[in-house]
Amino acid sequence: MGILQGEHKLYQFLTHRRGAIRNGNIPKQQHSVKLSIITQFYPPDYAATGQLIEELASQLRHYGMYVHIFTGQPGYAFQKESAPSEEYKDMMSIRRSRTSRLWPKRIRGKAVNGLLFCVRSAVHLLKTSWRGDVLLVTTAPPFLPILGYLINLWFGLPYVCLLYDLYPDVAVELQVVPVHHWLVRLWDVINQQIWKNAQGVIVLSPSMKQRIVAKCPEVADKVAVIHSWADPDIIVPMPKQENWFAQKYKLVDQFTVLYSGNIGRCHDMETIVEAAELLQNEPIQFVFIGDGAKRQACEDRIAELGLTNCLFLPYQHKENLPYSLTACDLSLVTVSPGMEGLVAPSKLYGILAAGRPVGVICEERSYLRQLVEEAKCGASFRNNDATGLANFIRRLASDSQLADLMGKAGRSYLKSNFTLDIIAQKYSEVLLGKAIVTEPEPTPQTPIVVNQAH
Fold it and tell me: What's the domain of life for this entry (predicted)?
């Protein structure tokens, strides 16, 4: 009888959702904060931001949070595969809307697709049951924080902004729009209102906080710098001789330099290609894993130079990352000139977990330089300093002991500062400090799939 009553309560909770419920076990009800997260990208999408949100949401359950995620169908890497429109597992529910893919390779196309996702998110949040006690809005897409501001005005719902990138500044640096354009001025004014009314603003680097405070000094006390993370229990150092990924792509016997992630407009790929040209006659292999706006230009330039020491591979599924990230001897992180404080590469943390040295190409004032210096895990180079990068690669290729020491130091630094446990605690302090605790909705403990979207 108790089981039947419990199932009846669960059915009442889910009656507004489409589809049927299968194979669900109902946990004991407990007091909890209901956290709603809005993000355009989420697994099985390849976007790193979505993968990090998945890990964070799962960890926040341990802080007494019931997490609801509204997201889109896979689209970051422009794959055709779809995911369930609704999922329920443990103290998490995921709802996926249809994803627009209008001109996906163009900036304007991405902007239109992002705006359409914002509209779908707004419609979603008009339903009281989906709002929760506190809202976490990301900048995927960049205009999403505006929705948090409006929902707060309409319904009084507290919201926290998680800023991956700082717009419109990124668009200005990429020369998508002039700095004095009316849209830029309007966006800046709106941003200031969003930050002032937010209960918290989370940024990924100290330099990003400096940018925000320079624009809006009043919000200095509510801006929290919380880095990204990696799981050292999943990404574990592995000899290339024992690594199937290294064996598959014949990387075992060559010193391998890896760039893994978005090959996009915000990343200095030109310096890497120039270094590859300088090292073309040496037993050193460059591997590029990922995709993005600059990938085709990189491939074209490499073909033009006649380089045979460069290999391009597609994005890897998350389960392959422990192998792809350890199939190298050195990993690279790059940020284009002018992008300091506007973007923060999350790929760095997986590199540290993999126990590999890191080479960072960035501006002299970048926070990345200080981090690498503190961790003693590699070296930093100015943009366009291909010669310095090439010499560093030669040094590590001839000194495996130094490479090993740097890799171990980086992994140790990550375990002390950037694990999911450490970072989730910081997120919980921001989110729980702003939430109004209410009675939670029940949710199944085991995964349930409802309605396959097409």
Answer: Bacteria
pLDDT category at 262 given cuts 50, 70, 90 is very high
DSSP 3-state assignment of 239?
coil
Structure-block tokens of residue 394 = 């030669």
Rg (CA), the chain: 23
- Can you name the CATH fold of 2-20+27-229+419-447? Rossmann fold (3.40.50)
- Cα separation, 154 vs 36, in Å, equals 16
Domain ranges for the chain:
2-20+27-229+419-447, 240-416
Q: What is the pLDDT of residue 440?
A: 37
List the Cα angle 354/356/379 in 5-degree steps. 135
Calpha distance 64→343 (Å, rounded): 31
Q: Which CATH architecture has domain 240-416?
A: 3-Layer(aba) Sandwich (3.40)
Do 36 and 131 touch, CB atoms closer than 8 A? yes
pLDDT of residue 107: 60
Task: Judge whether 285 and 255 are in contact, CB under 8 Å.
Answer: yes
Note if the bond before 237 is cis, omega within 30 degrees.
Answer: no
Output the furthest CA–CA distance in the chain (Å, rounded): 76
pLDDT(195) > 90: yes
> Can the peptide bond before residue 168 be classed as cis, meaning omega within 30 degrees of 0?
yes
Cα–Cα distance for residue pair 260/220, rounded to 1 Å: 34
Give the integer Cα–Cα distance in Å for 227 and 64: 22
**pLDDT tens figures, 7-37:** 343 333 333 333 332 233 323 334 578 999 9
Averaged pLDDT of the chain: 86
User: What is the spatial distance between Cα 35 and Cα 54, in angstroms, rounded to a whole number?
Assistant: 13
- pLDDT for the residue 100: 55
Pairing between strand 84-89 and 223-225?
Answer: unpaired
Q: What is the pLDDT of residues 79-113, one digit of tens each?
A: 556 788 888 887 789 998 876 554 455 566 566 77
Phi, psi of 362 (to 5 degrees): -160, 180
> Residue 411: left (phi > 0), alpha (psi -120 to 50), or beta?
alpha
According to the model, what pLDDT value does residue 436 have?
44
159: tokens are 């919201």
The Cα-based distances of 330 to 116, 191, 256, 285, 402 in angstroms read 40, 39, 7, 11, 12
Spatial distance between the Cα atoms of 83 and 168, rounded to a whole number of angstroms: 31
pLDDT at 283: 96
Identical fold between 2-20+27-229+419-447 and 240-416: yes
d(CA 92, CA 66): 6
Secondary structure class of 447 (helix, strand, coil): coil
Q: Give CA–CA dist 297/318, Å, rounded.
A: 26
